[in-house]
From TrEMBL:
Name the UniProt record assigns to this protein: Isomerase
Entry keywords, A to Z: Isomerase, Transferase
SUPFAM superfamilies reported for this sequence: CoA-transferase family III (CaiB/BaiF)
GO function terms (MF aspect): isomerase activity
Signal sequence, start to end: none
Domain of life of the organism encoding this protein: Bacteria
InterPro entries: CoA-transferase_III, CoA-Trfase_fam_III, CoA-Trfase_III_dom3_sf, CoA-Trfase_III_dom_1_sf
Source species: Bradyrhizobium iriomotense
Amino acid sequence: MGGVLEGVRVLDFGRYIAGPYCATLLAEFGAEVIRVEKRDGSEDRFVAPVGEGGEGALFLQINRNKKCITLDPMKPEGQEVMRRLVATADVVVANLPPQTLRAMKLDYDSLKASKPDIILTTATAFGGPGPWSDRVGFDGVGQVMSGSVYMTGAGDPPYRAAVNWVDFGTALHCAFGTLAALIERGKSGRGQIVEGALLATALSFTNATLIEQAVINVNRVPTGNLGQTAAPADIYRTKDGWVLCQVTGHPLFKRWAKLMGEEDQWLNDPRFADDISRGNNGPVISERMARWCAERTTQEAVDTLGNAMIPTGPVLSPQQALDHPHIRAAGFLRDVDYPGLPKSAPVARAAVRLSETPGEIATRPPTLGEHTELVLAELGYDPAAIAALRQGGII
């Protein structure tokens, strides 16, 4: 496929998001990624089904550019296949609990026995050491334990984000760590363990809020969409929808005051002297912004604010996001065909561009076990041996 990571082979034993998307990012920049699934398909293949075979939207998003084999690694013959696979690999990605890694012989010591310089990239819910190290969890666990959910919404009830930002953030950290480990191996010849954790990601993303609490004991409470440390920062109703406006920093506030035609009123009042003062008096500023937005359509509001270089955006439904002219023109999404889909799937490219060695969505996500025979043949299995493995329920 080419790319900056051409020649790197990754075995993806990941499930759901953190592991598979880490491997996807590596694949998009040229690594050969082999997804290893259960014989009847891993559970993450079927989340939010959209196709005839039950493949889900999440699977289609985060498994492009990969090959797929099926394997039962708990049987002796499956262990032999795994041993041969690992011996050809540079990286193993497995966001599985430590006890599961050991049972599957995907723990670091077992992997090193087959490939001394292997890199193991793993992610758990809680990380370690600590009393919860062996517990399992999903994205929402990180959200609720980081302070993020407590601060979201109006407080009763608290709201978690609908988007799995903890999972995807963990995948990004793991991909970064894997690249660092590959660079180190190129220098020293040593492999190592790259470990992410959902809770660690969530805490890193909410860290400024935690720092503020620890240092000045501010004891903030949720205020819906109203910002607390600057203003105007809120979501405002227009004649035909909603827009977000976020003003942080005095230069932006000066632009906003000029746009309102009320520079003297806003710039000479000590209540609005700096960001934190404006945040403390946010309802006053937001009331003025709300009146301004209510007199305009969404398009008029975002165009006027955008031309004034004030951060803004419309609140879009999923369909409106798909149809938005900038999203379409920028090429953030690529239409990918997949067997059994009624239409192509708009798959998001890696959200970073390299000018000389860009990533690429080169192949659609694999069907279940699509490359099993190809990969096993590369490992030295002849057709009769492959047939015997299939007959024995190994693949």
